[in-house]
Amino acid sequence: MKIIMAAAECAPFAKAGGLADVMGALPKELSRLGHELNVIVPKYSLISEEYISEFALKESLEFDFKGQQMSFRVLEYNHAGVKFLFVENDDYFKRDQIYGQVDDSERYAFFNRAVLEIVRRQEKPADLLHVHDWHTAMVPFLLKEDQRYTSISSIKTVLTIHNLQFQGKFSRGVFLENFEMDARYYDDGSVEWNGNFNSLKTGISYVDKVTTVSPTYRDEILTDFYGEKLNSLLQEKEQDLIGILNGIDTEVYNPATDLAIEREFDAMSIEGKQVNKRAIQSRVGLPERGDVPLLTMISRLSGQKGIDVLQEVLPTLLAEQEIQFVLLGSGEEQYEQFFKKLAIDFPNKVYVHVGFDEAFAHLLYAGADIFLMPSHFEPCGLSQLISMRYGTVPVANKTGGLKDTVIEYDEHLKAGNGFLSDFLQNKAFSLALERCLAFYQQPEHWEVIKKNGMKGDYSWSRSAIEYAKLYDRII
Fold first, then answer.
1. Is the pLDDT of residue 356 over 90?
2. I want to staple 420 with a disulfide (CB 3.0 to 4.6 A). Which of 107, 157, 398, 445 is the partner?
3. Same domain, yes or no, for 199 and 279?
4. Is residue 394 left, alpha or beta, with left meaning phi > 0 and alpha meaning psi from -120 to 50?
5. Does residue 252 fall inside a structural domain?
6. Cis preceding-peptide flag for 287 (omega within 30 of 0)
């Protein structure tokens, strides 16, 4: 089967979040199952020259966009059985950021068109087109409603929602200007939702199947609490809404072969984890103590991620207990300032790195004892999977993919891989963390919890099989 995926980001080329990790790993696994994979992404200027130097010019294309002829180049890069196609247009993608530009609506309207221009000019037709999040969610609409794409309009489509919070909402005028389609599509509600042009809503309405990145998130977004005002539409599409749990790239995240960490290790030689812990402490200037639990968080700093919860929990915990905490992340100014002040108030216990460092992230996964994820909602979450792969015990809130992957430790059965709060049931994060810290002091349990996590299957192979079965049902 020939499958074409399109998304706004893709690891390792351009990454802002978990979407990029999915795009970097899932196509490889599908290719291993015998499918032909093309992945279409913008060529941002922030892509490393290491990769750009290997890109080959495939073709130059033109199409009508906003009343004028627009051109772009298609650059090809083949890796791990996947053909990556990069859309090069400096006006829209020569930027130092992936998102957050004033013309995002126009940039991704152009990208949706570019994707379809590539698809319709390919010699071998695609069997299925799989788009991701709002940035490419207009592709199914254009495929069905724009006469330019009549020759490929029979291609089946899948849309994956990675985070329902981001919907690509703009004005009626933006829709008319950027897509040059008849106003009736807005006026009859085809692309409109709650008084706005809504890209994600449009994709949900036109696509053959909708997937989410975990089974629990699939159920959550049907409710008022998590549905982001799209739950009534999703309820109408419930029979076509499927939850498939994300995986991680177990070749990239493998403590036994990871060159970014101080000492490789596995579940049978877990003592190497202590070497990585000391390496962290030495690097950031914290006391090199193996007996003190080292907590970490690697995250975008936003309200979704539960930073407000840590604002309540961490100052008291640091004042009362012998613990260490290392943060790697960036985001909202108020949260960055909170962590910076925490480092000032507890200089021998806290280190904060505002920004991102891939190698340092690997070291933190490998050397920390406990990973914090107090998210108010989490469609899937990859950090808890990576942390468990490296024997770092997650303390998480029971939502979305965290509920599907973090299993509360049962000391009687010696089963489970982490600890959970449940905000909806008033089970506080502080209680889950205190329980975790209590078991840290009991080596006979702590070693079991770590190894339980490390033995889990977090690979994409299982998820890729589920996607392949879904594609077969659609075709």
1. no
2. 398
3. no
4. beta
5. no
6. no
Strands 192-193 and 169-170: unpaired
Judge contact between 76 and 141, C-beta under 8 A: no
Query: What's the token pair of residue 259?
Result: 């060159």
Domain span at residue 375 reads 272-458
| Side chain identity at residue 407, one-letter code | I
Q: Pick the closest to residue 361 from 392, 317, 406, 401 (CA basis).
A: 392
The residue whose two tokens read 């007996």 is: 291
Do the Cβ atoms of 367 and 298 come closer than 8 Å?
A: no
Is residue 430 in a domain? yes
In a domain, 279, yes or no: yes
Instruction: Please report, in range form, the residues annotated as the binding site for ADP-alpha-D-glucose.
Output: 15
Q: What is the pLDDT of residues 228-286, one digit of tens each?
A: 999 999 999 999 999 999 999 999 999 999 999 999 999 999 999 999 999 999 999 99
Residues 154 and 299 grouped into a single domain: no
Q: Look at the block and give the residue holding tokens 């209590």.
A: 438
What is the layout of strands, in order, in the sheet containing 169-170? 169-170, 196-198, 192-193
Are both 225 and 352 inside the same structural domain?
A: no
Please give the Cα distance from 178 to 92 (Å, whole number).
Answer: 13
Q: Which helix (H) or strand (E) holds 371?
A: strand 370-373
79 and 222 inside one domain: yes
Q: What is the total count of domains within the chain?
A: 2
Domain of residue 417, CATH code: 3.40.50.2000
Q: Do 289 and 181 sit in the same domain of this protein? A: no
Return the SS3 of 89: coil
- Binding site membership: which residues? 15
In a domain, 394, yes or no: yes
Please return the burial class of 95, using the count of CB atoms within 10 Å of its CB with bins 0-12, 13-18 and 19+.
middle
Q: What is the mean pLDDT of residues 28-57?
A: 97
To the nearest whole number, what is the mean pLDDT of the chain?
A: 97
Compute the distance between CA of residue 329 and CA of residue 96 in angstroms, rounded to an integer.
18
